[in-house]
Amino acid sequence: MDTYNETVLMPGKSDMFKRGLAAGSPIVLGYIPIALTYGVLAYQSGLSLFELTFMSVAVFAGAAQFLGVSMVAAGVTAAEIIIAVFVLNFRHFVMSLSFVNQMKGHERKKQLPLTFLLTDETFAISSIYKKEAKEAHAFWFYGGIMLAAYSSWVVGSLVGGLLGNVMPSALSDSMGIALYAMFIGLLIPSFKNSFAVMVIAVAAMGINTIAQWAGLTSGWAIVAGTILGGFAGIFVLPEEEEGEE
Amino acid sequence: MILWAIAGMSIVTLLPRIVPVFIMDRLNLPNWGRRWLAAIPYAALGALIVPGIFTVIEGKPWIGLAGGAAAVVTAWLRAPIMVSVLIAIITVLLLNGI
């Protein structure tokens, strides 16, 4: 790793962890209504409290869990559920490639636990906060983001299953905008600094929309949008990558 | 049967997440490959926002659009992300309630 970190003021582990928790707080706000809804739905579909919470602990992927629960309710075989979930979550492979590249220079045993908890949202936040990857205690920063997201997801699922619909549906429906607003809040500052970023994002939006319109499932369409939209970056990003700040 | 399904879901979700840790340093990517990886976050953000944002309120795409527009404006004015999120929620709540 870079040695200048040793000489300049280096934030400690707990400092970095707290900064990570703060950076991850918009995810918490976005996850809680979705986790509650998932808990309610899973319980109504016949999963026990243990099963539905265990799924949140072991899978930690919102859309996949909704899919799994609806397929369990429909009496689909386990094999079909597993294949559908794999297809839906394959996009995390591409995101993880990018995240591990951002974390190059850190040990594998630090990269691995973080990738376990990589979701659309934790990846989105982590990849925009990329300066922190150069810090010695980067693990604690990204760990804070991931843990904030993970704990709110697991606790929210349990509470949803336990208490049922505690949130008025008008509120939880409206809070469905939260994660989209977070993605926008992450993207816009990069737009202002770099026209290339706008080209990449708009290309991905277009490809994803066309792919879904053409009949691809949303999982594959997002993979296509991410991979092909990223190709636009090869042409428009400056030679010194990771550059625009 | 449900527990087996969950275990299977867990494995197929975790594999794509962790495999890059073990293959990244063996990939030896050319320069354009690194630029591609650097572009992935922005491409992913784009693909995660559109067209999903239009389905926030089923059958009323303009409400998602309005919430998104509120987030764009607040983010453009350099508001913290949490502020953009809260204003977008309030926008959708108001429009959806009417």
Automatic annotation (TrEMBL), chain A:
Domain of life of the organism encoding this protein: Bacteria
- Look up keyword Isomerase and say if it applies: no
Q: Name one GO cellular component term.
A: plasma membrane
Cell location: Cell membrane
Q: How does it sit in the membrane?
A: Multi-pass membrane protein
Q: Which processes are annotated in GO (biological process)?
A: L-valine transmembrane transport
Q: Which residues cross the membrane?
A: 20-41, 53-75, 81-100, 139-163, 220-237
Q: Which InterPro entries match?
A: Brnchd-chn_aa_trnsp_permease
Q: Which family does it belong to?
A: Belongs to the AzlC family.
* Keyword Transmembrane belongs to the record: yes
Name the chain's protein: 4-azaleucine resistance probable transporter AzlC
Keywords, A to Z, come to: Cell membrane, Membrane, Transmembrane, Transmembrane helix, Transport
TrEMBL record, chain B:
Which Pfam family name is an example for this entry?
AzlD
Q: Which InterPro entries does the record cross-reference, listed alphabetically?
A: Brnchd-chn_aa_trnsp_AzlD
Q: Which UniProt keywords apply?
A: Membrane, Transmembrane, Transmembrane helix
- List residues traversing the bilayer: 6-24, 36-57, 69-95
Protein's UniProt name = Branched-chain amino acid transport protein
